[in-house]
Amino acid sequence: MTGKLAVIYFSPTHTSRTTALAVAEGLAELGMEAQDVDLTMAPAREGFALELGEGDVAVVGYPVYAGRVPRVLAEALAGLAGEGAVAVPVAVYGNRDFDDALVEMADILAEAGFAVPAAGAFVGEHSFTRLVGTDRPDAADVEAAVAFGAAVAAKLAAGDLSAAEPRGNRPYTDYQADLPFMPVTTDACTDCGVCAHVCPMGAIDPADVRRVDECCISCCACVKACPEAAKTFEGTPVDGVAHMLQENCVARREPETFL
Ligand SMILES: Cc1cc2nc3c(=O)[nH]c(=O)nc-3n(C[C@H](O)[C@H](O)[C@H](O)COP(=O)(O)O)c2cc1C
Ligand code: SF4
Ligand code: SF4
């Protein structure tokens, strides 16, 4: 194929980015040049517009939030137009389940004019705790994502654009992730400013990092990036969910692909 390969992703803690890029690597067999479209940070999402057409392919990588597509990403994707291009949803979830996040993204992309002949769900370390899905995607996950990309390339090369039928329900599960629960800042904070810099919502005041706006989506980018472990959800309901996950969701889950 001679068109564009757009690797579009929203990835506060980087696992969706890693996975989407691995899928794109597998698709490289099509001989297309990959273009990064990082929608993680607010300025990139605001006013986002991208028009693709026949012969183009979009890989769309995103974390599963409460069994759904993160709302901020769904909103940004209103600026994406397919016009007969192909799109491949790549959902990354924290080893609990992806529920309806693949069917929801397949619907969003079909509505935008894309053919959706493949979709995949992969595992990433859980945003809320390093003890669930620890260090994933690991080498085996990356290998599976590259292999999935290659299988999609083979399907496209055969001219087969038949729609994938990913696991999931319609109507989708109710969206429960609009908490909002904001992280707290402990006395270990050195005011380095890293957390404000990485926040996808611009929710942390760079002049006073203890001030976190209610637009926080609990993505945990700040928590995982803080070099002093001074940003934390300890004592908030997010911490309660993390403990529930540590009790119930540590058994390793494997990638699921639909072609
Ligand atoms: C608000 C929120 C809700 C989440 N809901 C789910 C979920 O329903 N199922 C699941 O397995 N993981 C869930 N996760 C975990 C993320 O999907 C997972 O850690 C993913 O790898 C994060 O992607 P990223 O590194 O690209 O940010 C949730 C994370 C957040 C922040
Ligand atoms: S990253 Fe951590 S140490 Fe640095 S300003 Fe934020 S909370 Fe403080
Ligand atoms: S303040 Fe909220 S939205 Fe911003 S990085 Fe931290 S958890 Fe994510």
From TrEMBL:
Domain spans labelled Flavodoxin-like: 5-153
InterPro entries: 4Fe4S_Fe-S-bd (IPR017896), 4Fe4S_Fe_S_CS (IPR017900), Flavodoxin/NO_synth (IPR008254), Flavoprotein-like_sf (IPR029039)
Matches recorded under PROSITE patterns: 4FE4S_FER_1, 4FE4S_FER_2, FLAVODOXIN_LIKE
Keyword tags: Iron, Iron-sulfur, Metal-binding
Pfam families associated with the record: Fer4
Keyword hit for Plastid: no
Organism: Adlercreutzia faecimuris
UniProt key word Transferase: no
UniProt superkingdom: Bacteria
Name of the protein in question: 4Fe-4S binding protein
Domain 4Fe-4S ferredoxin-type residues, every copy: 180-209, 213-236
Segments forming a coiled coil: none
Signal peptide as annotated in the record: none
Gene3D superfamilies per UniProt: 3.30.70.20, 3.40.50.360
